[in-house]
Amino acid sequence: MKYKDAGVNIEEGYRAVSLIKDMARKTYSSRVLNGIGSFAALYDIGGYKNPVLVSGTDGVGTKLEIAFKMKKYDTVGIDCVAMCVNDILCHGARPLFFLDYLACGKLDAEVAAQIVSGVAKGCEIAGCSLIGGETAEMPGFYKEGDYDIAGFAVGIVERDRIIDGSKITEGDVLIGIESSGPHSNGYSLIRRIIKNLDAEFEGNKIGEVLLTPTTIYVPYVLPLIEKYEIKGMAHITGGGFYENIPRMFKENFTAVIDKNSFKIPKIFEYIMDSGVEEREMFNTFNMGIGFVLCVDKGLAKNIVEDLEGMGKGAYIIGHVERGGDGVCIK
Question: Where is the PurM-like C-terminal domain (predicted)?
Fold first, then answer.
């Protein structure tokens, strides 16, 4: 009896690692002290006076099932990186490095390499290094053809530059930065509504539209942090506006949102027309706003113009009022 007889092909695992190594190496900075293949990765964080490490972990969720059905695997890795680095960005952290975990029922080195190519692409966009990971072949636990992916990101920020919402005051303005679609949230509901992934939607298969990768906000927001005082930030993920925007508040504030201040992408209108109430939409999806900044009113116009100059749509979507109702959308 060999391990392969139990469903685990070690040789395919070696081949997957071989395909992945070059992708990871392209993401390395001079701070990476060793390469893929060691038992652990070494990273030099020198150059900071009083550094604080900021970490986050997340996965892609049931969006993966759409990738399997469409046989398109090269975007979900970007999603995995985005979900992690956007979270740590909320505290002003610059992503340093990323690790991924890929699990499956039967390993196909080519598919694994396509998934990790997305991870590497996401790391390049975020400016961090893919320094390690794990590929687990688990026959009998996952169905053949199914994969799961999760990631772990570590960033860094000077202690006196941490953004934690403590400076937010009544009258501050909320700026919304556009999303690329549903990102990686609400797909359990989407899959209940949209059965035919080959159906035409705005000139494309709707399955392809749903696989549009999550926007990585790092290259847009880090320059703003260096230039302006950003008081609070929120990554609009699961729980939509209602759960995520209040997470930036230290005190009892309400975010008053003007739902007519930004453009809602047609994919969300399609979902809503399928029978989902508006409040449920804002409680599940990002509705076209993937990241929110809280700033002084006097800075808002300039920040919006800077974001537009970087090619990213941005809108003044609301303001902060004292009182503990969380979010008011009107």
Answer: 170-326
- Residues 184, 48 within the same domain: no
Please give the share of the chain, as a percent, with pLDDT higher than 70: 100
Task: Tell me whether residue 180 is exposed, middle or buried, using C-beta atoms within 10 angstroms of its C-beta: 0 to 12, 13 to 18, 19 or more.
Answer: middle
For residue 147 the two structure tokens come to 């994969």
Judge if 46 and 127 occupy the same domain: yes
- 149 and 196, same structural domain? no
| Strand runs labelled E in the chain | 51-59, 94-104, 129-137, 147-158, 173-178, 200-201, 204-205, 232-235, 253-257, 289-295, 314-322, 326-329
Whole-model pTM: value is 0.95
- CATH code for position 129: 3.30.1330.10
**Number of independent structural domains in the chain:** 2
If DSSP codes are grouped into helix, strand and coil, which group holds residue 326? strand
The Cα–Cα gap between 266 and 14 comes to 43
Residue-range definition of the domain harbouring residue 186: 172-329
Q: Could you tell me the two tokens for 305?
A: 């113009």
What average pLDDT score do residues 149-175 get? 97
pLDDT band at 264 (very low <50, low <70, confident <90, very high): very high
Domain membership of residue 109 (yes or no) is yes
